[in-house]
Design a protein that fits this description.
Helix content: 25-40%
Order of helices and strands: EHHEEHEHHEHEHEEEEEHEHEH
Strand content: 15-25%
CATH architecture: Alpha-Beta Barrel
Shape: globular
Distance between the termini: 46 Å
Radius of gyration: 19 Å
Number of helices: 10
CATH class: Alpha Beta
Number of domains: 1
Number of strands: 13
CATH superfamily: Glycoside hydrolase/deacetylase
CATH topology: TIM Barrel
C-alpha cells in the first residue's frame, strides 16, 4: 500500500497579529476558517477526512504562544486530538521578534537563520509546550516556510525526533537549505531522522510542482496519487494549511480549493492501493527506481484556467 500523507500546517497568522488582531480573532480566521458563510478551517477539513475514513497529520505551530499565550495553542491541540488525528510540531520562528520572554536569544524569519544551538533549544521548547497542553508524544517536525537546513536535522536527531518533513523541492536553494537532491522522491534516512520530502509532479521538463491543495488541480493531485500507488512508492506527501480553504483575505470560502480537498479524499479512499496514515505507517521503499508523474501540458493549461476563474469568483474584494 502507498500511504497518502495528508499534512496540514496549522498556524496562527503573524500578518494578522501585526495588523492588530487578537488571539481570538486570529484563531477564528486562521484555525476555524470562520467566514460569514460558515467555518472552513481544520474543523471542516476533519469533517471531510472523517467522512472518507482518512487520517491526517496536523503540524501545529506553538510559536504564537510566545506572544498570544498558551491557551490558544491548547485549543488547537484539543480540536485535533479529540478527533483522533495526529499532532506534530511546526515552527514559524518569525514570532520570536515580538516575544517578551523568548526561549532563545537568536532571531530569524526561518529556522535556518538561527545557530544550531538555538535551533535545538527552540524545537525542544516547542515539543515540550505542545505536549504540556495535551498533545501526544511529538515525533515529527516541519519548519515554517520549509526554512530548514542541515543543522535543523541535527537538532531533531539530538532531541530524539524521528521524522522531518521540511524538504520541499519547490523551496530548495531558497528558503530550504537542506543538502538533498532536488529529485528526491522517497523517504531518506539522515542519521536517526527520516526525511519525508513533500511530493509533487513535473509541470515542465524540469519544473517541480508540489503536491499542495492550492497548487495542483483535483485532476493533477489524483493523477499524482495514482502514479505513486501504481509505481509502488511507499508514500505521497501532500501539503495544505489550516486556512487554505479560504480566500487570501480570509473573508470568504474558496469553493474551488474545497472541491480539490474533497476530490483528494475521494481518490485516497477509493483506490485499492492507497491508504492514509502517519509517517510511522510508511513501508520500506520498493527497489524499483522512483519517478514523478510526467508533465501534461493540457492538464497544466486547465489548472491555469480553473485558477483564473477561482480568482474572479472568490478573490475579488466586496
Amino acid at each position: 500500500m502507498t500511504v497518502a500523507l495528508v499534512t496540514v500546517d496549522t498556524e496562527l497568522s503573524a500578518g494578522l497579529f501585526q495588523r492588530g488582531w487578537d488571539a481570538d480573532a486570529n484563531f477564528a480566521a486562521s484555525i476555524l476558517g470562520r467566514t460569514a458563510k460558515g467555518d472552513f478551517g481544520i474543523g471542516w477539513q476533519m469533517d471531510r477526512l472523517d467522512e472518507h475514513g482518512l487520517k491526517a497529520i496536523f503540524f501545529i505551530d506553538p510559536a504564537p504562544a510566545l506572544v498570544l499565550g498558551e491557551g490558544v495553542i491548547a485549543r488547537i491541540v484539543d480540536m485535533v486530538a479529540a478527533r483522533g488525528h495526529f499532532v506534530e510540531l511546526h515552527m514559524h520562528s518569525e514570532w520570536l521578534a515580538w516575544a517578551d520572554k523568548p526561549p532563545i536569544a537568536g532571531r530569524g524569519s526561518n529556522m535556518r537563520d538561527l545557530c544550531p544551538a538555538d535551533q535545538a533549544m527552540l524545537i525542544g521548547w516547542g515539543r515540550d509546550m505542545l505536549e504540556r497542553v495535551g498533545a501526544p508524544k511529538i515525533r515529527a517536525f516541519r519548519a515554517g516556510n520549509f526554512g530548514a537546513d542541515d543543522a535543523t536535522l541535527a537538532a531533531l536527531d539530538q532531541l530524539g525526533l524521528l521524522w522531518d518533513s521540511s524538504y520541499n523541492p519547490a523551496f530548495a536553494g531558497t528558503a530550504c537549505h537542506i543538502s538533498l537532491p532536488a529529485d528526491l522522491i522517497d523517504p531518506s534516512r539522515i542519521g536517526a531522522v527520516t526525511q519525508m520530502p513533500v511530493s509533487g509532479i513535473w509541470e515542465g521538463l524540469d519544473r517541480f510542482r508540489p503536491a499542495q491543495i492550492c497548487a495542483l488541480s483535483a485532476r493533477e493531485m489524483g493523477d499524482g496519487l495514482r502514479h505513486a500507488a501504481d509505481t509502488d512508492r511507499p508514500c505521497f506527501n501532500i501539503v495544505t494549511h489550516s486556512f487554505e480553504m479560504l480566500s487570501r483575505d480570509r473573508l470568504r470560502p474558496n469553493r474551488a480549493v474545497m472541491r480539490r480537498f474533497v476530490a483528494m479524499c475521494e481518490t485516497i479512499c477509493t483506490h485499492a492501493n492507497l491508504t492514509s496514515g502517519h509517517f510511522a505507517d510508511v513501508p520500506k521503499a520498493a527497489e524499483t527506481p522512483p519517478t514523478r508523474l510526467s508533465a501534461n501540458r493540457w492538464h497544466t493549461a486547465l489548472r491555469h484556467g480553473e485558477q483564473a476563474l477561482a480568482t474572479i469568483l472568490y478573490e475579488r474584494r466586496s
